[in-house]
Amino acid sequence: MRPEASSRRQPTFAELFTPKLVTVLREGYRFPDFKADAVAGITVAMVALPLSMAIAKASGTTPDRGLFTAIVGGFLISLLGGSRFQIGGPAGAFIVVVAASIEQRGFDGFLLSAIMAGVLLAAMGLLRLGTYIKYIPHPVTVGFTSGIAVIIFASQITDLLGLTLPGREPAALVPKLEAIWGSLATVTPAAVLVAGFSVVLILGLRRTRPHWPGLLIAIALASLLSVLLARLGYPVATIGSKFGGIPSTLPAPSLPALSADSIAAAFPDAVTFALLGGIESLLSAVVADGMSGRRHRSNCELVAQGVANIASAIFGGICATGTIARTATNVRAGARGPVSGMLHAVFLLVLMLVAAPLASYVPLAALAAVLAVVSWNMAEKAEFAAILRNSRGDALVLLSTFLLTIFRDLSEGIAVGVVLGAIMFMHRMAEIVEIDTGARLIESDEADAAGARGRYRAETEEDFLVYRLSGPFFFGAAAEVAAVLDRIGQTPKVFVLDLTRVPFADATAGKSLKSFAEKAVRGGSRVYAVGASPAVRRALIENGARPPLIDYAATLEDAREQSLTALAA
């Protein structure tokens, strides 16, 4: 074992799963810190209030479900999470999958999927899988985020234009656009006016008064505008007219009906929710780390996300996750720790208790305007264009994820994108594997001709032949390495593979090396491997490339001495 590996201490369970709240309190939490967190908490609550209602409505349920999620889920994510500044609640990324789940299996079926997703998230954290979510390729995250943005915007067209659809609005994009196109004759000019006013106000405040709660101000003024229009004889659909308002208390906790069939039916959606929740929350935590200079505990964060989703569903909420925009607002507002996120949930609860009747006047067109702006901001336009320009391989991954997310399914888009990304990575890793001359093996797809042998020059001293490998010796490159070795025209008494520059090897590499060694031994050669690290040597030996078929030496000189001794015997 290498010295650096043996000296690296593994973190304990407590270090991995202690919530950041405990860490902050241990560091010394005083009244000035609480005051800063209170200011940040109320600032975030002003942003979360309209967003939570808008996201819930766009997800195919009532606006109050979004508030339940932000209050219950948001509180628990901050209480138990592994990030100092994470703000939890309903997220725009979930709109597509939640709406589809509710449409297909009803709200009770969705709640069961959300609870199961919470269990999966907690299990992922306890199994320490949070570390691996960061390996999802960047083009995949850009692709599904941009795809979700397109679908969110499309889902708001009905309310932006005040359309009246003949039936329930489809969740799939193409049927949705067909239904909208067929209902354009029902456009409500007053709704268009309210939506346009809201968008202009949100963008104007963001430019001129970026520290003001622009979303809440836009919702409040749009509500006054809709009341005025209604008195003039131009009514606009509101939360009250469509949903009957929102309750002023949290509902009593309850569980959906459980059965073997319902659990089996809910499982695919649960996997999608868990995967998306894990990605979104850890991306948000990384953003907070970048803004604050702190480091989050990814596995602890996943456990908190799991508990929050279970509790949110039990209280009738939708999926909860870390939210990038609200988390960034929290950091910019001067938060000192998780208390700000907990207070944000408390402030939302107080607002719901006190101001619930006023929510009835909020126009649906204003909520749609909020999400239209959110979807525009979600679409990573600059990143999307840069990936398309810079790399054909990454562009393929990006477009596959983007188009599948839009026209098929989010989970399918992510799965295909990750697989394509992995294939592209293996291709690039195979490209850097070289033998002696630096020739890229990925480009050596040529006929087995005598002229091909000269391309791979070796260091020869009578009966001592050395080939030097450089790069990862894994299944993506093993076939090419084996082909090169098989084309060697000479059969020296001693054949040496210098593996000093091979950082790792896998089972396929071991099998390929074993096959070559067997052929060389039959031809009368002895085979040595020199300079292999303990990990590479172990991988090769475990897969058949072991003594006496292949002898291992620390250096080239050691191999020379061992071979001379063996030949003289």
From TrEMBL:
InterPro entries: SLC26A/SulP_dom, SLC26A/SulP_fam, STAS_dom, STAS_dom_sf. GO terms for cellular component: membrane. GO terms for biological process: transmembrane transport. CDD domains: STAS_SulP_like_sulfate_transporter. It comes from the Bacteria. Coiled coil: none annotated. It holds the Pfam family Sulfate_transp. It is found in: Membrane. Residues 454-563 form the STAS domain. Keywords: Membrane, Transmembrane, Transmembrane helix. It is a multi-pass membrane protein. The chain crosses the membrane at residues 67-87, 107-127, 139-159, 179-203, 215-234, 270-290, 302-325, 345-374, 395-426. This is Sodium-independent anion transporter. The lineage of its organism: Bacteria, Pseudomonadati, Pseudomonadota, Alphaproteobacteria, Hyphomicrobiales.
